Automatic annotation (TrEMBL):
Name of the protein: Non-heme iron oxygenase ferredoxin subunit
Keywords, sorted A to Z: 2Fe-2S, Iron, Iron-sulfur, Metal-binding
Matches recorded under CDD domains: Rieske_RO_ferredoxin (cd03528)
Residue ranges of domain Rieske in the record: 14-106
GO MF entries: 2 iron, 2 sulfur cluster binding; metal ion binding; monooxygenase activity; oxidoreductase activity, acting on paired donors, with incorporation or reduction of molecular oxygen
InterPro entries listed in its UniProt record: Rieske_2Fe-2S, Rieske_2Fe-2S_sf
Length: 147
């Protein structure tokens, strides 16, 4: 897959930890995308619309590396877009994010798992969130069967 041209979504100082920045479809050329500044200090990007309903994830609640939809409380892992709780059953689409100085570069349409060198981009991590038997949360990202 050819890497799309980056969009300067904003600067790191514009999005405090635990907050979001909505990038409209007119800017991305595809769909509205939300950039998340997780409580862990990492920046992530997902399609803005919840896969369960027409709610904006930009209006959701961030806890560690997880976003909770404000409408029906579906939860998604910001690292990989995986569904973490019902009522959603479809993963959220991820987009590659890089930090270049103070600029947040968004690669709309480039999924995180297709990033050429994902561990070195500085803004995202492909380390998968893991849940051990009996654990509800681990490293801020509850992953496992839908509960």
């Amino acid at each position: 897959m050819r890497q799309p041209e980056p969009i300067i979504a904003g600067t790191t100082g514009e999005i405090p930890e635990g907050e979001t920045l909505l990038i409209p479809a007119e800017t991305t050329g595809t769909v509205a995308i939300t950039v998340f500044h997780a409580e862990t200090g990492t920046f992530y990007a997902l399609d803005d619309e919840c896969t369960h309903g027409a709610a904006s994830l930009a209006e959701g609640f961030i806890e560690d590396d997880v976003i909770e939809c404000p409408q029906h409380s579906a939860r998604f892992c910001l690292r990989n877009g995986k569904v973490l709780s019902l009522p959603a059953t479809v993963d959220a689409t991820t987009h590659q994010v890089e930090i270049d100085g103070e600029n947040i570069l968004l690669y709309a349409g480039l999924p995180v798992d297709e990033a050429a060198d994902a561990e070195s981009v500085g803004a995202t991590s492909l380390r998968m969130c893991h849940r051990l038997p009996g654990e509800r949360y681990r490293a801020g990202c509850p992953v496992g069967p839908l509960e």
